[in-house]
Sequence to fold (312 residues):
Amino acid sequence: MFSNSTISTADIPYVGRFAPSPTGPLHFGSLLAAVASYLDARSNNGKWIIRMEDLDPPREMANAKERILEALDVYQLYSDEPIVYQSERYPLYQAALDRLIHNDLVFPCTCSRKQLSAVDGIHFGNCGSDISSPDIEFAWRFNCQSINAELNTESEVSFNDALQGHFKQSLQQDIGDFVVKRKDLLWAYQLAMVVDDFQQGVTHVVRGIDLIDSTLRQNMLQRALNYPIPHYAHIPVACAENGQKLSKQNLAPALDLENPAANLWRALSWLRQEPPENLRQESVKEVLAWGIANWQPLKLQGLQNQAANYPA
Ligand code: GLU
Fold:
């Protein structure tokens, strides 16, 4: 837990998770999110689970799931529960969508990406799309004003991030009516993640700051579905030399499976935990044990990005 709480954290249930998308093998940037979420869970006597977010087959890479799980195994980041695959959970997402439809919190939309590019891709307000013909393709969008009745279109919504502080966005300019089920019938990440975090009892979300923009959308869905809102902590992202976030898309090299202990040491160092020099030679188990015993997430407070090779 990212606070200097005076109550014993042992009594507070803690469930954390790491939720990779199988669009490529793990790289150093994804290891940081895995390690930070793992250390935070373990240092709070919490559970830590792995969830495979395989929702988008066209973007997946062959064997990525197996490679991700193999890497997590080599780094001894073991899930406390059987690994869940989102591709096997469509009925849960459908049930959540049915509730949203029933409560009139979503609307069907046929707008194209091209149409929306004129408004910076932000859809705001029910467009009243006609879906009366059976072969019309449409998405389901969450009506962001529906649960923010007290707010006007100029309003901002916000949440408190344990590391990044108060984070706010404009309902109309930044969020809009986001998609929960896509036109191609695939489930949107926002809905699936919220349903799964709830179903799996996740209490703490520790992930990269590149996902902070999604948090307020997810909070709206959690409110709309009457789910509790987890604690959020967004860690900085690792950047390549050109300043871009290290990612599968910009072909960050796959994690080295030959030297997991040394890489974990580097991850701890990157996470500003200042591991002692002599820990470098120890086993994966020892490095993780040191990381758990000495985890001080607030050393990352306010930091948004940092070179992948920090400290140089
Ligand atoms: N599956 C998402 C990704 O790999 C992460 C989701 C999350 O941590 O909320 O970017």
